[in-house]
Structures are given as C-alpha cells and as structure tokens.
Amino acid sequence: MLGDGQATVAQELREFLTWPGAWTICIWNHGDRLAAHIHSPGGTKLSIVIAEELSSYPVIDAAVYRDGQIYIISLPGESFVGPLALPEVVAHKLGNRVVPILREIEMSRDNMSLLPPKKPSPPAD
Fold this sequence. Notes:
Layout: H1 11-14, E1 23-30, E2 33-39, E3 45-51, H2 62-65, E4 69-74, E5 79-85, H3 86-94, H4 100-107
Antiparallel strand pairs: 1-2, 1-4, 2-3, 4-5
C-alpha cells in the first residue's frame, strides 16, 4: 500500500479526489496509516504518509478518516470547503445526492478559465 511504490488510491477513485480549478486535500485512513492525497488544479497528484502507525496516536480518531475527509480550496472563487466525507463528494459527483456547498461552488465563477495559464512543459532532451 503506502510507501512501497504501489498505488495508494484506485485509479477509478482518483477522479473523485479532484475538483476543477481547485486544490483538494483528502485525509484518509489506510489500515494503520494515515495519508494525505493532494491534487492541484493542474492535475499534479501527491500522496504522503502522515502517520505510519495510527494506533500510536490515540488522540486521532481513526474512524473519522476511515472513508476519507476531503477539503477543497478554490482560489479563483476564494472558496474553502471541508472537511466533507469523501462518500458525500462521490455521491454528489455521481449525481446521486446534492451537497449544497458543492453545488454553490459549481454555480459560482470557480472554473479553470479564471486560472492563469499553465506554464509550458520544458522540451524533452
């Protein structure tokens, strides 16, 4: 799982960890490890282990992070949302449920066109 070079989040789920024009941070319990999955507006993804042995931190309620807690930071619209339970975000994105605060972000002027242009990639050697 984490830290051994293998994928930490199933590819099918990655799309639910992103939000157009926003940074997302998902804090998620993976067994006895706590990880942060960070996605940038440009598509860069980063996963880091916050705690290797979650049981060593009795002040952290592992159950809170079992299904993931997500934060959305949208700079163009100066919006901050979170924590939201990841299953709620997934249900909203699938159209199975409307999460009012996410709907507000969708209806606001938060979109990729408000971001500055992405820097071009350097030429390959």
